[in-house]
């Protein structure tokens, strides 16, 4: 009994390396319960070592790094030993080793990501692109942002304040926001009281004190599966000292086609019943205009 208690009080420790045995620093570690309840976050040290204080057992540990594949470990041990991470196909090694590398740290129970330097190695035009690369977050469809450990959609905030727009409009705004305007990104699995939102949240901190400038951006998207869907977004942003104003316009239009074939065969004793159903569905979305 004493031995078990002593091990539990040790928290969770380990060391991250790559396949060559080199330490992996600045990796985000997110600890959660088996039911995905968030427990704790940490960042690996320069020698690859990490330590989490939680005594919860069993647990899920998600390890995420810009240059390595995300790994999730289900375990109950206090000492995980050496964890080897697999390099991504498109390595960001030049970002990881430079002094200007992106910085990940834990502050007040939230992961803070400083993306400076990342945009020089990847084509990341918008704040949404940065969110998709932020440790602790993921975008599998290019249309939404979710937490990795909890697989939930967080509330998006700008400069610590909830948007007056609805969730869809806020996401659209983030997709139009130039990446070079982002100072840092904060990921909180449990939002602090001052953010005035419940549950998980992501806070995008914008740069201040920018010189007078007018920024414009146009984005066009065309999707084709069995039908065409067209979306065009234009944004204009003006900054002067502490004053800033954004204008966002979106035009969308498209067609949707779906087909369902169903065949069911029931056999009860010597009786057989067959059901066949064929359904074609077509719809057209008229041109819609959104102005924010």
TrEMBL record:
| Top-level lineage group | Bacteria
Which SUPFAM superfamilies does the UniProt record give? Carboxypeptidase regulatory domain-like (SSF49464), Porins (SSF56935)
Gene3D superfamilies per UniProt: Carboxypeptidase-like, regulatory domain
The protein's name: TonB-dependent receptor plug domain-containing protein
Annotated organism of origin: Tannerella sp. oral taxon BU063 isolate Cell 1/3
